[in-house]
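Researcher: We plan to redesign the surface later, but first we want a full-length starting point. C-alpha cells attached.
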C-alpha cells in the first residue's frame, strides 16, 4: 500500500498525469522501478492517458479512506465515461464488474484499448491558460483528460486553441512525462489551420464531449442506439418512413449541411475511420463507431447529445402525441388536442388517422419520401358542422360570410352543405331547434297515417329525411316503416294476388296455343312481369303453370298427336313435328325426348285400343 505517498488526483486530471506526479515524487527513480512499484512489473503506460488500465492496482495505491477507488479514478480521471458509448453491452458489463472489485479477465484491458485506440491523439495537448490557472491554484500543472479527447481542438473554458506538446502519445508507452516540465503557461503564436474558421463547430464538439464525460456512464446506450437513430432520422427525411433503413446519400447530405464537408474531412484527417461510414448504420457496424462519430450524428438528429438522449421516440412514423388539431375554429388549432387513432402501413408510405376530441374533427395524412404530407379532412366534427348549420339557418349570413367564419373556401362550404342536406333544409321552429322540430313532424305523420315510409316523408316533409339521416340515423330507422312492410304494400300485393289467381284459372281452362310464360300470365292478369318475378308471394301463385321452352314443345307435340285420326296411329315424331309446325332444328334439339314421348303415347294408345 502506497497511499500516504500516492498523489490525490486534481479535477479532470487524467490517470497518466497522476502517475507522472507520483513518479516526480519518487525523485529520479528509474522508470522500471516505479512501474514495478505501481503495477508489479513493466507496464505500457499509453493506455492510462485514456482508460482505467490495470484498475485492480488502484486498491494497492490508496486506501478506501482516501476516497481513491477504482470507480472514482475511472469516472473522474479517465475517458471511460466518454468511450462507453462505443462499448458493447457485454464489454461494458465486464468493465463495471472489474471496477466494482472483480478480478479482471486476461483480455480485459486489451479489449478496452482496441475499442478506443483509433481515437487517440498524436501528441499530449494542453491549454496555456489552464496551465496558468493550475499553477496559481495548485502550484503545478497537469495533463487534463478532456484536452486529449479526439476532436477537442479548443478549450471550452477559455475558448482558445489547444497547443500540442512535444510529447507524443507513443512516447508515453515507456516513460513518465509530468506536464509541469513539458508545457508553457503563455499563449504562443501558432500557424493558422483549417480549424481556425470552424472555431464555433470545434467548441460545440468540445461541449458535447464534456457532456459525455459527465453523463456517459448514466446513459443506457443500448436504448439510445440504432433504432433511435433511424426513428429520429425519419423525422428529418433521412430514414425510410417505417424507420427500418437509412438513405446513406441523404444522411451524408444532412451531415454535410449541418457540419460542412471540409470540416468533417479535417476532423478525421488523423483518425482512421471506415470509408463511407455513414452508409454503415446497421447493427454489425455501429458498434465500431467512435464517440466522435456518434456526437456528429446526434447533433444532426437533435442538435446535441443531451437532446438526443432525453428525447422520446415512437414507433408511430408521425411522432409522439398529442398531435395538432387541423380545425381552424377549434381552440386547439395547430397546438395540440388530436390523437392518432390508426396508422396504416404500406410498402413505401404510411397513412395516419387523427381525431381531435375537442371538436370531433377526423383527418388523415400520408407520409412518404416523395409526398408532402397533405392533410385530408375525413370528418369536420360536431363543432364545425354545428357552426355551419347555425350559419345556414341565419338568412343574414351569406355563403362568403359563412366561409369567413368557418375559415374555409366557399367550395368546401358548399360541398359540406350538400353532404349535410343543408342546401334545401326545410324551415323549423327556431325555439325548438331543428332536431326537435323535425322529429315532431315525423311523429305527427305517424299519428295521421298510422305509419310513415320514406316516400311519404319525402312527399309531406321534404328535407327532413336528409337532416335526420345525417345526424339521428338510429332514431329515424326506429320510426320509419320500410316500403315493403307498409300496410299499403300488403294491400297492393293482396290485390295483385287475386288478379293473378283469376288469370291462372282462365289459362288452365283455356290452354293457349303459345308458351305459358310469366309475360303471358302478366298480360292476362293486367300486371307487370317484374311484379310476378320479384314478389315471392305472387310468384307462388303462378309457379305451377309456368312452362319452360321444353315443356311448351312437348305440349305442342301431344296436341298434334291427339288432333290426328285414331286410324293412322302410331305416328312418327318427325311427322307430328310437321303437323305442329315445328322447325327442324327444334326436332333435332329434342329428338330423343320426342321419340321417348311418342313411345309412351303409342303404348297408351295400344292399351286403349285393347
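Model: Full-length starting sequence:
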Amino acid at each position: 500500500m502506497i497511499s500516504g505517498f500516492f498523489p490525490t488526483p486534481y479535477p479532470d486530471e487524467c490517470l497518466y498525469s497522476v502517475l507522472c506526479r507520483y513518479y516526480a515524487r519518487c525523485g529520479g527513480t528509474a522508470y522500471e522501478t516505479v512501474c514495478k512499484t505501481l503495477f508489479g512489473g513493466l507496464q505500457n503506460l499509453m493506455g492510462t492517458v485514456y482508460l482505467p488500465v490495470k484498475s485492480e492496482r488502484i486498491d494497492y495505491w490508496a486506501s478506501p479512506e482516501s476516497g481513491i477507488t477504482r470507480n472514482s479514478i475511472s469516472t473522474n480521471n479517465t475517458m471511460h465515461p466518454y468511450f462507453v458509448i462505443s462499448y458493447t453491452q457485454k464489454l461494458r458489463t465486464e468493465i463495471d464488474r472489474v471496477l466494482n472489485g472483480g478480478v479482471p479477465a486476461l483480455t480485459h484491458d486489451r479489449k478496452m484499448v482496441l475499442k478506443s485506440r483509433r481515437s487517440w491523439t498524436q501528441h499530449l495537448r494542453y491549454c496555456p491558460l489552464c496551465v496558468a490557472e493550475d499553477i496559481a491554484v495548485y502550484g503545478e500543472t497537469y495533463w487534463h483528460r478532456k484536452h486529449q479527447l479526439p476532436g477537442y481542438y479548443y478549450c471550452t473554458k477559455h475558448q482558445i486553441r489547444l497547443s500540442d506538446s512535444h510529447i507524443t502519445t507513443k512516447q508515453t508507452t515507456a516513460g513518465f512525462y509530468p506536464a509541469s516540465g513539458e508545457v508553457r503557461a503563455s499563449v504562443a503564436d501558432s500557424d493558422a489551420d483549417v480549424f481556425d474558421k470552424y472555431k464555433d463547430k470545434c467548441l460545440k464538439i468540445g461541449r458535447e464531449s464534456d457532456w459525455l464525460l459527465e453523463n456517459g456512464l448514466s446513459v443506457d446506450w443500448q436504448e439510445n442506439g440504432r433504432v433511435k437513430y433511424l426513428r429520429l432520422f425519419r423525422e428529418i427525411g433521412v430514414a425510410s418512413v417505417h424507420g427500418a433503413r437509412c438513405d446513406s446519400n441523404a444522411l451524408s447530405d444532412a451531415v454535410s449541411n449541418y457540419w460542412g464537408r471540409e470540416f468533417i474531412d479535417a476532423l478525421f484527417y488523423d483518425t482512421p475511420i471506415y470509408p463511407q461510414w455513414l452508409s454503415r448504420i446497421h447493427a454489425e457496424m455501429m458498434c465500431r463507431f467512435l464517440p466522435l462519430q456518434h456526437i456528429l450524428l446526434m447533433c444532426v438528429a437533435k442538435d446535441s447529445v443531451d437532446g438526443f438522449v432525453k428525447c422520446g421516440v415512437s414507433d408511430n412514423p408521425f411522432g409522439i402525441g398529442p398531435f395538432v388539431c387541423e380545425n381552424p375554429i377549434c381552440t386547439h388549432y395547430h397546438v395540440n388536442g388530436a390523437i392518432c387513432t390508426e396508422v396504416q402501413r404500406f410498402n413505401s408510405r404510411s397513412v395516419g388517422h387523427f381525431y381531435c376530441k375537442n371538436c370531433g374533427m377526423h383527418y388523415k395524412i400520408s407520409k412518404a419520401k416523395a409526398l408532402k404530407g397533405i392533410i385530408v379532412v375525413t370528418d369536420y366534427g360536431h363543432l364545425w358542422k354545428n357552426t355551419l348549420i347555425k350559419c345556414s339557418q341565419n338568412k343574414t349570413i351569406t355563403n362568403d360570410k359563412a366561409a369567413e367564419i368557418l375559415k374555409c373556401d366557399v367550395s368546401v362550404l358548399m360541398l359540406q352543405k350538400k353532404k349535410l342536406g343543408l342546401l334545401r333544409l326545410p324551415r323549423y321552429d327556431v325555439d325548438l331547434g331543428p332536431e326537435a322540430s323535425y322529429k315532431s313532424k315525423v311523429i305527427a305523420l305517424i299519428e295521421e297515417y298510422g305509419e310513415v315510409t320514406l316516400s311519404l316523408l319525402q312527399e309531406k316533409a321534404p328535407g327532413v329525411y336528409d337532416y335526420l339521416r345525417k345526424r339521428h340515423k338510429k332514431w329515424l330507422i326506429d320510426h320509419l316503416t320500410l316500403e315493403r312492410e307498409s300496410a299499403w304494400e300488403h294491400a297492393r300485393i293482396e290485390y295483385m294476388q287475386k288478379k293473378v289467381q283469376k288469370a291462372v284459372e282462365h289459362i288452365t281452362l283455356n290452354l293457349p296455343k303459345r308458351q305459358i310464360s310469366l309475360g303471358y300470365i302478366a298480360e292476362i292478369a293486367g300486371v307487370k312481369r317484374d311484379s310476378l318475378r320479384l314478389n315471392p308471394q305472387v310468384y307462388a301463385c303462378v309457379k305451377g303453370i309456368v312452362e319452360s321452352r321444353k315443356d311448351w314443345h312437348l305440349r305442342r307435340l301431344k296436341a298434334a298427336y291427339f288432333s290426328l285420326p285414331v286410324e293412322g296411329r302410331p305416328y312418327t315424331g318427325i311427322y307430328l313435328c310437321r303437323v305442329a309446325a315445328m322447325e327442324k332444328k327444334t326436332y333435332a334439339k329434342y329428338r330423343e325426348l320426342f321419340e321417348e314421348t311418342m313411345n309412351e303415347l303409342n303404348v297408351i294408345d295400344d292399351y286403349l285400343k285393347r
